[in-house]
Amino acid sequence: MPSPAFVAGDFKVFDVKGLKPRMDEIRARVRPKLDAFGGSLAPSISRSVAGDVFAHVAKHVRRTVSPPDDTWVAFGPDPRGYKKHCHFKVAVSRSYVRFLFEVGPEHADKKRWGAAWKKSAGNLGPVLRRVKGLAWFKNEHDDDPAAPLGDLTAEQLAELADELTRTRDGQLVFGRAVLAAEAEHWTEAQYRTAALETFRALAPLYRLH
């Protein structure tokens, strides 16, 4: 199995023009590493959340014209899919590697999760704001975060729950983004440490219901 560590050439696949050529490069260079991440990280994530976690590598099967600007492996509680559940994600794009927690647009009960988050944000917010590098992203595909969690009050963090139901595509995404220029020099151990530190910090959100 290949090392999950991304190198400079892996990020450059997102410069390739056209859906098929780019997908060919993603399948050849990036997907095997995401598969390796899935196998490597799932057992540790399962221990962090005290439940079974299954890895799902993005296939991009719905795309017919535009090539993807990022790709990922997601970790969730259902072996059949992750989108209807809270999940973690390791995502790679041209400029970043992102380690994320998401309540995505297709979550089965965003209203209930949002209510649980509002009740818990007063306790969890101060803890999350002290974790170096954690940020809020407006969209799961955004490279750049909207705000560091350290810049948001506990009240502002609680209000982010409204993002889930404000529109049909509402979502809530927390995590950490690392520049490709830095990440391309990381070892497999550094990737693993960054992922697990981020996911462990955000594990209480995964367990909310």
In short:
Helix content is 43%, strand content 19%. With 209 residues, the protein is an alpha+beta fold. β3 and β4 (96-103) form a beta hairpin.
User: What low-confidence regions span 5 or more consecutive residues with pLDDT below 50?
Assistant: none
Q: Tally the beta strands.
A: 7
- Helix and strand content put the structural class at alpha+beta
- Number of helical elements: 7
Largest sheet: 7 strands, antiparallel
Shape: globular
Residue-averaged pLDDT, rounded?
93
Give the amount of beta strand, in percent: 15-25%
**Cα distance, first to last residue?**
36 Å
H and E string = HHEEEEHEEHHEHH
Helix-residue proportion: 40-55%
Biggest sheet strand line-up: 1-2-3-4-7-5-6
In angstroms, what is the radius of gyration? Answer: 16 Å
What does this protein structure show overall?
It is a single chain. This protein is an alpha+beta fold and 209 residues long. Helix content is 43%, strand content 19%. The chain has a 7-stranded antiparallel sheet with strand order 1-2-3-4-7-5-6. Helix 2 (19-49) crosses helix 7. The N and C termini lie far apart (36 Å).
Keywords summarizing the entry:
single chain; 209 residues; alpha+beta; 7-stranded antiparallel sheet; 43% helix
Structural topology:
Layout: H1 8-11, H2 19-49, E1 54-57, E2 70-76, E3 87-93, E4 96-103, H3 110-129, E5 135-137, E6 147-148, H4 154-159, H5 162-166, E7 172-179, H6 180-183, H7 188-206
Antiparallel strand pairs: 1-2, 2-3, 3-4, 4-7, 5-6, 5-7
Helix pairs in contact: 2-7
